[in-house]
Amino acid sequence: MLQDIRKEIEQLIARFEAEKAENERLRQELQACEQTGENLRKQIHELESEIETRKLAEAFSGVHYNAEAKAKVDTLIREIDKCISYLEQA
């Protein structure tokens, strides 16, 4: 009977160690996925910025100063004003 209990304890310890190793593997996989997600978010942000820059360049490349170009400039000015205000608060 004592022998059986020892055997069961050894099996439980072995299962615990296996689960512990699996847990660590999953944590590393999660960390890698989070890093990939962060890299993709940065890439999206960069691409969105590039799109905005190209739209603005397109708007100014025409002979006429149209409403779309004015709206983009106004948006950029507001963003610059926000940055200045944040810097003044710091």
Approximately how much beta-strand content do the residues carry? Answer: under 5%
Mean pLDDT: 85
The helix content is: over 70%
Rg on CA atoms, Å: 29 Å
- H/E element sequence: HH
Number of domains: 1
Shape summary: rod-shaped
Count of DSSP strands? 0
End-to-end Cα distance? 72 Å
Number of helices: 2
Q: Tell me about the biggest sheet?
A: none
Question: Brief description of this entry?
Answer:
The protein has helices spanning 2-61, 67-89. It has 90 residues and is mostly helical.
Textual characterization of the structure:
With 90 residues, the protein is mostly helical. The protein has one domain. It contains two helices and no strands. It has helices spanning 2-61, 67-89. The radius of gyration is 29 Å and the shape is rod-shaped. It starts with a helix and ends with a helix.
Highlighted features:
2 helices, mainly alpha, 90 residues, 92% helix
Task: Note the topology.
Blueprint: H1 2-61, H2 67-89
